[in-house]
Write a structure and sequence with these properties.
Layout (H helix, E strand, L loop, with lengths): L1 H13 L18 E4 L8 E2 L10 E4 L3 E2 L7 E2 L21 E6 L8 H18 L9 E3 L5 E3 L17 E6 L10 H16 L9 E4 L20 E4 L8 E2 L10 E4 L12 E2 L1 H4 L14 E8 L8 H18 L9 E3 L5 E3 L17 E6 L10 H16 L3 E9 H4 L7 H7 L30
Parallel strand pairs: 5-8, 6-9, 6-10, 7-9, 14-17, 15-18, 15-19, 16-18
Antiparallel strand pairs: 1-3, 2-3, 4-5, 7-8, 11-13, 12-13, 16-17
GO biological process, one term: peptidoglycan catabolic process
Keywords: Immunity, Signal
GO molecular function: N-acetylmuramoyl-L-alanine amidase activity; zinc ion binding
């Protein structure tokens, strides 16, 4: 009797629930369910996650995209999209929606639409040498919505507007007739989804209906070099200062190359991410313009007075933030060395991770070094001031902005006593009396640098 009891207990404790439902798929999240392979749509399944089931049962994933309050969007995997050659992140929310007809036969069934979209993608990628299908989304006359480049990546559909718009292709030729009610309702619901998900501005300022067209390189405003881009071969682009997907009508080896010797008027030179060898971010979140705050930090640790030494530190900061802290990228918007150079972190257009509760409302500028007992040198201070003026002149920072030190907004000694006393003399500094405790000077700077949730 004792042996039987022990065996029963052992068996009961060794059997666990199937891990399918708790598994997070890289594309589809926790949408898995254990069903037979024959019933799994498009065979999007993974083995060995339905441990207690028979061999013909696999963990099958839902391949539709769902946003709260949004229509169903059919994922790229369900129309068997070719993987893109390259992708460039789209800063959202965007102010424009561009609507087109694809000038191809219309479709009503999923099977018909898949054939049409696959043909469009092959034409864009093989005949036009683009990196992917040009549209962000496509809509059929049956009201089905298909993901193209999606909400997060710049499309190739309207010269001068690709980086500022969502391009929607209505599958069919509508030169002699209008779209039907099902397609019109799907289009309206997709745009409303963009509003609700804060991917589109609440006021869409223009809607274009035109044939798909060319390069947006010359109209694209680089966060450091402004509108200096031109489409040339990557081998001819100095210091590899180029962005992909902005020379849509050109061969794949042609990129939008920017001039590092032509900073925007009223702006100092900024050492770009490519110049200091930054790693690609894991993900990005677009930043609004005319921000109300600038927050000043110091990194703590040693300073740097030569560009080569500052670059070594920049790489160290990024590695620490991404690998040790698990963040998407280096935390600060910009960093400034005592060599007088400004180094691009997340830049003007992406939300940083530097001040809890203020990341989406502020530009975070950190001076490399520890400034408890002495303030940064004149070169660094002048560069910080020039950077702020640049942000104002380009519309990234509000003219009525408020300047604060990190310690004004969290329990930290940052940006150091000496530097804090310096910024309190600057015109736009405003003190803030916090309701919680006074700064705890033993709390490390990086412990308090957290992204808004």
């Amino acid at each position: 009797m004792l042996l039987t009891l022990i065996i029963v207990i052992f068996i009961s404790s060794s059997i666990t629930a199937d891990s399918c439902e708790s598994f997070v798929h890289g594309d589809y999240g926790r949408t898995g369910q254990c069903i037979k392979i024959s019933a799994c749509l498009n065979n999007v399944y993974l083995p060995k996650l339905c441990e207690s089931k028979s061999m013909d049962v696999m963990c099958c994933f839902n391949t539709t995209i769902s946003y709260k309050g949004c229509p169903t969007i059919i994922h790229r995997a369900r129309w068997n999209a070719i993987n893109p050659k390259e992708q460039t992140s789209l800063a959202t929310p965007v102010p424009f929606v561009a609507i087109y007809d694809t000038v191809s036969p219309s479709c009503r069934t999923h099977h018909e639409c898949v054939k049409q979209i696959q043909g469009i993608q092959k034409y864009h990628m093989k005949e036009k040498n683009w990196s992917d299908i040009g549209y962000n989304f496509l809509i059929s006359e049956s009201g089905l919505i298909y993901e193209g480049r999606g909400w997060n990546y710049i499309g190739a559909h309207r010269q001068g507007y690709n980086s500022r718009s969502i391009g929607i292709g209505m599958i069919g030729n509508y030169s002699l007739r209008k779209i039907n009610k099902s397609a019109a309702n799907a289009l309206e619901s997709l745009i409303q989804c963009g509003f609700q998900s804060m991917l589109l501005l609440l006021i869409v300022t223009a809607v274009f209906v035109t044939s798909i067209a060319g390069d947006s390189c010359e109209s694209y405003a680089h966060p450091t070099y402004g509108k200096t881009g031109r489409c040339i071969k990557t081998s001819d682009c100095p210091n590899s200062l180029y962005i992909s997907n902005l020379c849509e009508s050109q061969p794949v080896d042609i990129k939008c190359c920017f001039s590092p010797s032509a900073p925007t008027p009223n702006c100092p030179n900024i050492v770009s991410r490519s110049e200091w060898g930054a790693r690609a971010p894991k993900s990005t979140t677009g930043m609004a313009k005319s921000l109300p705050y600038v927050v000043i930090h110091h990194t703590t640790g040693g300073t740097c007075t030569a560009k080569s030494a500052c670059i070594v530190k920049m790489k160290g900061f990024q590695n620490y933030h991404m690998d040790s802290n698990g963040w998407d990228d280096i935390g600060y918007s910009f960093l400034v060395g005592e060599d007088g150079n400004i180094y691009e972190g997340r830049g003007w257009t992406y939300v940083g991770a530097h001040t809890y509760g203020y990341n989406s409302q502020s530009i975070g500028i950190s001076v490399i070094g520890d400034y408890m007992s002495q303030k940064p040198n004149a070169a660094a201070i002048n560069s910080v001031k020039a950077l702020i003026e640049c942000g104002i002149s380009r519309g990234y920072i509000s003219r009525a902005y408020t300047l604060r030190g990190h310690r004004d907004l969290d329990s930290t000694s940052c940006p150091g006593n000496a530097f804090y006393n310096e910024i309190k003399t600057w015109t736009n500094y405003r003190s803030l009396v916090r309701s919680n405790a006074s700064p705890q000077f033993n709390v490390p700077e990086d412990y308090l640098v957290m992204q808004d949730m």
